[in-house]
């Protein structure tokens, strides 16, 4: 199952929701993968920091190239390997979001109950309609996030959301909602504090202890590398991606080979 967390606007809590869903699925012993196609790469950073804590179950993750055709190809490969794929698409109406929509089984649009955020319903509805006209029908749900903890105010916020949603038959609000909680906002930072390192060592562990613990749990040491690619190389990746259904790794290798040839001229 592919669960896409996306939207047009930033700040709605998409990455927080995506990482929490991925973690819950891991705890439930689901074979899950967190796929980060948000240019901000926050989910990738979160996964990297989490890997430093030997006491936490591993959340498999990877970072996608922000090219629509390449993302479609990569998601198809991941589908054959995992029970669930949680896609963090970030806040933008772009090629990455639209490509992921074409393969999603469930789309979650986190929305803050404010005018600026709820005004995006029309754009989201058009995106869903466009994707559903090209592929299978999937479920598109709005998840209200950061709802006021004041009962009277929360009731008004939910009513305002439902009023605006009533004009779109392909968007439905989850019955449940998430309230504005300081604990939720600070959760990732608290986890980071508990994982803080000194050099390459997690505080409280000797290097030998870390290596032994990793071996016992079957975990190989990880190093995550983020590359800043030139615009010319990215264009070459896009050109090749649209001509093939190959995996991202092969597309990237071919593009790199051709890009190097241009540098040698």
From TrEMBL:
Gene3D superfamilies on file: P-loop containing nucleotide triphosphate hydrolases (3.40.50.300)
Top-level taxonomy: Eukaryota, Metazoa, Ecdysozoa, Arthropoda, Chelicerata
Domain annotation CobQ/CobB/MinD/ParA nucleotide binding: ranges: 3-191
UniProt protein name: ANK_REP_REGION domain-containing protein
SUPFAM superfamilies: P-loop containing nucleoside triphosphate hydrolases (SSF52540)
One family name in Pfam for this protein: CbiA
Origin superkingdom: Eukaryota
Organism in which the protein naturally occurs: Trichonephila clavata
